[in-house]
Amino acid sequence: MADDPTLGEVVRRFDERFADVRDDIAQLGRRLDEKVDQRIYDLRHEALASRVTTLETLREKDAEKLVATRRWLIGAVIVPLVGILLPVVILLWQGAGT
């Protein structure tokens, strides 16, 4: 009987354990609040993948526009300019040689 705790000691120990459990539950609740729901994660991932796909498509279109601009520059400016200047240079070269 001497080793048995008193009723007050049992209540005090029970209150301590109850407070520990309450703190643990509160801590778990805070940790769960910080976690992202799987559905939200999936939606964000899909949105990000969609943005990346859109940006890749836009980049490919810009690259195609750049190639088209270079082709236009060569076809519309450089070729006619060479076509005009080449005969003049040839005539000047032949005239200087005679």
Descriptors for this entry?
98 residues; mainly alpha
| Percent of residues in beta strands | under 5%
> Based on CA inertia axes, which overall geometry fits?
rod-shaped
Q: How far from one another are the termini?
A: 137 Å
- Contiguous uncertain segments of 5+ residues: none
Q: Oligomeric state of the chains? A: single chain
Helical segment count? 2
Radius of gyration: 41 Å
H/E series: HH
- As a percent range, the share of helical residues equals over 70%
Secondary structure: number of strands: 0
Describe this structure in words.
- The protein has 98 residues and is an all-alpha fold.
- It has a domain at 1-35.
- It contains two helices and no strands.
- The protein has helices at 7-34, 38-97.
- The mean pLDDT is 89.
Quick structural summary:
The chain is mainly α and 98 residues long. The protein contains 2 helices and no strands. The chain is rod-shaped, with a radius of gyration of 41 Å.
Secondary-structure map with pairings?
Layout: H1 7-34, H2 38-97
Keywords: Membrane, Transmembrane, Transmembrane helix
Transmembrane segments: 72-93
